[in-house]
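SEVERITY: medium
COMPONENT: batch folding queue
REPORTER: lab tech (J.R.)

DESCRIPTION
The queue accepted two submissions in a row. Attaching both inputs and their returned structure tokens so the on-call engineer can compare them side by side.

ATTACHMENT 1
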Amino acid sequence: MDFQQQATTLKPDQVLEIIIRRRWLILIPLCLVLTAGFFYTLKAPKIYMASTTILIQPQKVPTDYVQSIVTSDPQQRINTISQQILSRTNLENIIKQFGLFRDNENMYPEDKINSMRARVLVTQTSSRHQSTEAFAISFTGPNPEIVMKVANQLASYFMDENLKAREIQARGTSDFLESELAKIKIKLEEREKEIAAYRAKYMGGLPDELETNLRTLDRLQSQYSDDLNTLRDTQNDVALLKTQISRLREMEASGRASLQTEVPLPGRQILLTPEQQYELAKTQLDELLVKYTTQHPEVIKLTKTVADLKKKVEAEKKEGKESGSQGSLNTNALSSNNAVLLQHEFTLRQRENDISNLKANIQQIKQTMQIYQKRVEDTPKREQELQSIQRDYNNIKESYNSLLARRLEAELAVNMEKKQKGEQFRILDYARLPEKPISPDVRMLLMLSLALGFGLGGGTVFLLESLNPALRRDEQIETEIGLPILASIPPLEQPGAGKKKWFEFIIFVIVCIYAIAILILFVFFYMEGINKTLNFIQTIIHI
């Protein structure tokens, strides 16, 4: 039967007997491994870590009043800033500022930069809504004071870079909107000029003037009709005047005139004496002088007639009623006939002038009516063209107003970022001077030393017990050899065996105390830190 089969039947007292008998094989490897682990813990280079916790504060101004234009995710912005912080230039400045790698001056710059990047750790913390609320910046190194300073410096860089990045992004958005607004404004002004030029070009024929054009066209048509009627009446008067003038000239030629001349005029009868003829001729002369100068042929002719009539009236007054009454009557008759003829000729010229003016006015009205008719007919076309231009103008104006509103919002956002009222980073916990190194890991070394020590001792005992065929128990004689036990002889004590046992016991106690002391030191190293524990031991020793 092999040892494994025997092990299945081992009792606790038998296991304890094996441990006591093989105690040195268990204790010595354990002490050796603990000692090695202890000295490795003391001699291994100590690495410290300092961490700074940064809280991401939300925007202080309510978003209902000012909308932030920095839309990047905080986690993405942290990654971007991390790349900026870990850039070669920034890390070189930190190395020079804190005098890092002084003990490794022969180290290549690339290796220094890579070592710095490996020693910087950014850990992000997310809430239930998967949005980053805080993150920690950690830095490791052999000097705890420098590690603390570098960690705080990195946190300051993060905060400064975040403010710069947000302000740059906000300012960039504002500048972009400003440039686009300037372009849209130029287009808007061009469309305004185009609309103004179109309105100036087709002034009077625009859609909003259609009602005015229709009323004007109606008025011109009414005026055109009135002028046609007036022209027709005037032409009839001219024909009648020409007939009367012809009759008067026949009467003057035949010498048949009476003392009182009765000549039918259009719509009235005219009976004139020499004095009335004089007054009538004088009135007609005054009317002509209003229109013409004294050099006009009609004025000259009528002036001469007025002068003759005046002489005749004065001569008639000087002459008596008795002398030459028959000759006077004939002379008065002839003078009256001449005055009526002059009046008809003057009226005829006036009517002919009126006809010319009426024809010119009618022609002008016809041309004006054609213009307004053309405007009315072209109104749908002008309306369509103007709508096309106005549509482009309205679209550009709408875009301009939208960009203008966004630019104002961007300016508010820029001012908010300048005054640090937007989302920003705030240091929640500054890095403190680390007391316990993160390397070497005392807890791990303790567990590893115990496991290795007990493993070596236990493995050795297991091999020796499994390979040793000696009989250790009474029942093994009966079970393995098959012989009954008749009697048992106790072990014989040799001379000096007691002193040897006491000496062995004292050494065992010392070794156990040593192992326990090593374990206690390991525990203190883990709980209080290596430096603090060593300082405490030195203090006790000096006391």
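ATTACHMENT 2
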Amino acid sequence: MNRNNKGWVRTVCLTPPTLQDNTADADRLADALKSELKTNRVDIDLDLLKKLPEQLRKWAYQLQCVVLKDRDRWFLTDITDSQDSCTIAGLAVDLGTSRVVLRLLNLSNGQILNESSFHNPQVTIASDVLARIHYADIDGGLKRLNELIINSLNENITKLCRSCKLEPADIYMLSVAGNTTMSHLFMGLNPHWIIREPYIPAVNRPGIVKTEDLNILVNPSARAFIFPNSGSYFGGDLVAGILFSGLNNEEKTSILVDVGTNAEVVLGNSDWLIACAGAAGPALEGGVTRMGMMAGPGVIDRIAIEPASLQFQIHTIEDLAPQGICGSGLIDLAAHLYLSGMIEMRGKFVPSRCGNRLKEQKGVMHLVVVPASESATGSDLTISQADLDSLIRSKAAMYTILETLMHSVGSSFIDLSAFYVAGTFGSLIQPESAISIGMLPDLPLNTYRAVGNSSLGGATMALISSECLDEIDRIRDRITYLELNVNQEFMNRFSAAKFIPHTDPSRFPSVKVWG
């Protein structure tokens, strides 16, 4: 019988018709699937009905069925010979604003076949979603943005399939997780009202969509499940992240933070979820300084400073010569500059401790992190006073988002059983450094758990288990969104957090400055 009674591929063996049992082919198959799936409804498209009689007889009524569920409704998307050894594949998509990640799976057993990623080509139009929404308003703008992502997706799907000796036609299901704007542009929906009061998306729950209608070149019968969003600023990528972290099933209260273009946060447990988002992302991604880069080969991801000698210990990804710094490296740098006394609590350079590393460039003070003789660029890699000021504003925003969210439910940080940190940022960040600058609360280090690309992880789970789609709806329906833009408490707390680690050092007892 069925090899995976929770998956999307079901093996069905039908009793052939006789004069005594003259049930129609489609009804015979639908009845078997209703029993297998424990449902009262299975829909079969006309295109599949046209080929069903011949294939049932060719395969001696033994077949594999690719099914998909949308709440109480099941779809039969296609059928294959039960003896066929060809791979029935699914594709999980993390539809990021700056980067798109693909994961190819075998739908029959959940095995991950391969992964790939590519830069979102919409970046050539605009780097942020706000500018893309404005671009979508011009004549032909929405069509252009949609074509950019769909064409690149098709191109990269083909490459990924070839790496596994498969064809795009072997893909029967997609699972797509992205923020609200990215999902709209992916579907070709007008995002105009997402950023205009009262901030209404075109759709919150796209559900199941035919890939042909999206112009995605995979199996003609394939469907795409697009993760639901919870309003304009809490997208399907975060719903996927909640699913992947398991926070939604925990009795005790936990928190999930995903830092990208924005810092998006969800707090809760199996009974309730409350979420918010704020502009704390760009600086924490390494975007505040001229040497800031996304994580990649030759990018500084970790830094330590020996307080007595003030010697810098620098680590780069793949141990290549330094060419820039990513968010985790920047946070490490700020933390160790503070702990070694090279900057004070306002984030200002202390000349007597910085020595000859401190240089003035066009009236602005810069600290040389990597001298030109050691950098891959042939130039000094520096951080300026303005860079540090921007980083402090971003870390203050991050901490204040967390504090405001906790306060909104009458809880404190010590009540948290787990603190999940998602994304590349979460994989690379050193929690002790983030605590040292007052970006994250001073909790035991084992409270912090990096969950990697939780958006992709959640999208993968939706391809593996049919039960996940029901859970995704339950997650979305439980989310309460906290709007920070009109929250006066947020602004008051923000001012107090613009110091390292905070104006109230008793909140960070583990942070000890050298000397």
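NOTES FROM REPORTER
The chain has four domains: 9-81, 89-236, 238-282+391-507, 298-382.
No errors were logged for either attachment.
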